[in-house]
Amino acid sequence: MSTFAELWAQLAPVGRDPGTGGYLRYAYTPAEALLRDWFLDQARGRGLAVEQDGNGNLFAWWGDPAAGDAVLTGSHLDSVPHGGAYDGPLGVVSALLAVDELRARGFAPARPIGVAVFAEEEGSRFGLACLGSRLFTGAVDPNAAAALTDRDGVTLAQAMGAVPAGARPDLLARLGCYVELHVEQGRALVDLDRAVGVATAIWPHGRWRLDFRGEANHAGTTLMADRRDPMLTFAATVLAADAEARRLGAHATIGRVQVAPNATNAIPSLVSAWLDARADAPDTMEAVVAAVYDRAQAHAREDGTKVSLTAESVSPETEFHVGLRDRLAKVLDGAPVLPTGAGHDAGVLSALLPTAMLFVRNPTGVSHSPAEHASDADCEAGVRALADVLQELAC
Ligand code: HGY
Ligand code: MN
Ligand code: MN
Question: pLDDT at position 2, please?
Fold first, then answer.
């Protein structure tokens, strides 16, 4: 039986950028394909029956899922650009090791236990977060998804080699509940001095693309009074996003920008920027997006530019199943319960079946960064906790 450290070491080099130490594990790229193959090998090596749902998602079964009322666990393997090692893979590795742990305990599940790998959870390549689980649950139309493009214009269908299957009610009908283990993307467990916690909710959150349009011109010869420079409107909007988030008690960042023609000696024609906005209540999230857009439009009027706002990926608030949450907290000796501002596939599945999340302590709270970390001891505690929870739910 592999230890956590042994299994973790197998993934560490896959898709890792030697310069930053961060991971480049985008959906349907060679690095992510290596991770998928690794998962399938690990599952088969445990005698788990593997299947794919036609949406890029993988399922490995202990027991016959057709028996129904299955307990599903798992997470995702893809990353944000130069992301950390734990966001996603920790849930998948922990699920495999929890199966090992239960077998070592001599536990025989009374209902099927499944391990899932959901595709494109980060939306790093095609822009829509939780794409695989949204397709699986019917939350996004497969033909619309098929046409999503990456930064090189490659469509999802081209990357997958097929139009995604879309909703799979036949597979969903077999599920009784879903429990996802994830590294905490915050510091609550550090401050509570606990290795494992249970999620209460996921904040509403989303991504909006702002397109700032101006007039391409010569950087050197165009009089300042004659310029229609969208970079000015963009810059003012970045500052406005920060100010409005602080004013409204929300979280907002513009962390991604594309400039056309992106030339050193040309005033841009177009600046596209992505706003990530989140809050502990839907109306607050909506208020911060509206406030940022209002200020962007005001600056556009001053600068003689134009701005448009397009929602690219919006996730509603998730309140996890209270009964399941409290049952798991009890199984885990009164583990603390806490919300998160990070999105997860569990948030998508919670619309259709009882769903819960376990968080593993992150000493710094840093995530979506090469600095993301969790200690082996805490990860092993997470495996034991997940095994305890699966035993409770599948007995
Ligand atoms: O972006 C998120 O909230 C998550 O980490 N995918
Ligand atoms: Mn993430
Ligand atoms: Mn994640």
Answer: 87
Task: Identify whether residues 127 and 225 lie together within a single domain.
Answer: no
Q: What's the N-to-C CA distance of the chain in angstroms?
A: 23
Domain that holds residue 58: 4-203+317-394
Output Rg (C-alpha) for the chain, integer angstroms: 22
Buried-state track 135-166, b at ≥16 Cβ within 10 A, e below 16: bbbebbebeebbebebeeeeebbebbeeebbb
The pLDDT confidence band at residue 119, using thresholds 50, 70 and 90, is very high
Q: How far is the CA of 221 from the centre of ligand 2 (A)?
A: 45
CB 342 less than 6 A from any atom of ligand 1: yes
Residue at which a domain ends, from 283, 315, 347: 315
pLDDT, one tens digit per residue, over 4-34 is: 999 999 999 999 999 999 999 999 999 999 9
Nearest CA to ligand 1 atom 6: 122
Q: What is the predicted pLDDT for the residue at 1?
A: 80
Confidence (pTM): 0.97
How far, in Å, are 125, 159, 302, 386 from residue 26 at the CA level? Answer: 6, 11, 39, 27
Question: Do 112 and 144 fall into the same domain?
Answer: yes
What CATH number does residue 296 fall under?
A: 3.30.70.360
What are 55-111's pLDDT values in tens digits?
999 999 999 999 999 999 999 999 999 999 999 999 999 999 999 999 999 999 999
**Among 75, 78, 80, which residue has the most ligand 1 atoms within 8 Å of its CB, making it the best to mutate?**
80
Distance between Cα 286 and ligand 2 center (Å): 22
Could you say which of 296, 315, 334 is where a domain stops?
A: 315
Number of domains in the chain: 2
